[in-house]
Amino acid sequence: MPTFKAIVCNKTESGYTADIQTVDDSALVTTGDQDVLVKVDYSTINFKDGLAITGRSPIIRKFPMSPGIDFSGTVEESGHPLFKKGDAVVLTGWGVGETHPGGLAQYAKVKGDWLVAKPSGLSSKQTMAIGTAGYTAMLCVLAIEKHGAKPGDGEVLVTGAAGGVGSIAVAVLAKLGYHVVASTGRLNEADYLKSLGAKEIMDRKELSEPGKPLGKERWTAVVDTVGSHTLANACATTRWDGAVAACGLAQGMDFPATVAPFILRGVTLYGINSVTTPRPKREAVWQRLANDLSLEKLDGMTQEISLSRAITIAPEILAGQVRGRLVVNVKQI
């Protein structure tokens, strides 16, 4: 195969770097059991990718490494029974961009077991507008539904609502008929969040400071992308037998809470792991996204950027300055 362009992160005695390099197929294989070569069309920039590109957290486990925890593209070569040359595929998770070369490159070689076929009704670009963020958001919605929370039961809180996961969670929940309250630190994004279907906007300051073990019951369900005090306060204000789906740690990994909401109100806390979900559930989640996410709203929250812009925008993502979804066109340098 020819050489190709990729973002490459490296850590040496002289420091941490992330730049675009010309690489060959030796940059693709890490374990020797990747059996599908994919020509990448699009990737995305998630919070985790921002950490990887800036080196602010030890996301990458091997160096040098191409970041990018998800991608969509077309199969070039396959030794896997489910996929053949020309198939359109999507990948999220499985350590890609951390221990295996990721999607911020023009080619990727991965295990076929990690791939799913691109859902009908979605373009390759739209699958990455959804990406890990939207996939995670839908896992949260499924947890809430499985718990029994229904539209009409009461208010559903989404924290970090202007970010990638939050934006899609708001849009999906609103389309399903839930009364969504969007918590954000960017109140100037109120019109944007209301355009996605949020009924109310809440200043994140109401949740982000240390709070009481129990507060006034309000939420029938919560999608939390923030963690730390925000998650603790969301649990403390969730109604009897409510559900909280926790999927992020933008504020921190700590959980400064008590057991009071879980014992005295029967609140259930669901941990959402989007990395190693088995294929049958992945396929079901992608089909739900194709059915239950407004593509008009998805396109409206999406910005397309180049491979080089992915590097420069990473600090902005970590600072919470980017709204919605970023799609990286890896063909554009």
Summing up helix and strand content along with how strands pair, one would put the structural category as alpha/beta
Compressed to H and E, one letter per element, the order equals EEEHEEEEHEHEHEHEHEHEHHEHE
- Principal-axes shape call: globular
CATH superfamily of the largest domain: Medium-chain alcohol dehydrogenases, catalytic domain
Strand content: 25-35%
Question: pLDDT under 50 segments (min length 5)?
Answer: none
According to CATH, what is the class of the largest domain?
Alpha Beta
Averaged pLDDT: 94
**Named CATH topology of the largest domain:** Quinone Oxidoreductase, Chain A, domain 1
CATH architecture of the largest domain: Alpha-Beta Complex
- How many structurally independent domains? 2
Topology summary:
Layout: E1 4-12, E2 15-23, E3 36-44, H1 47-54, E4 70-78, E5 88-92, E6 107-110, E7 116-117, H2 124-147, E8 155-158, H3 164-175, E9 179-184, H4 190-196, E10 200-203, H5 205-208, E11 219-224, H6 228-236, E12 238-246, H7 260-264, E13 268-271, H8 279-292, H9 295-300, E14 302-306, H10 307-318, E15 325-329
Parallel strand pairs: 8-9, 8-11, 9-10, 11-12, 12-13, 14-15
Antiparallel strand pairs: 1-2, 3-4, 3-6, 3-15, 4-5, 5-7
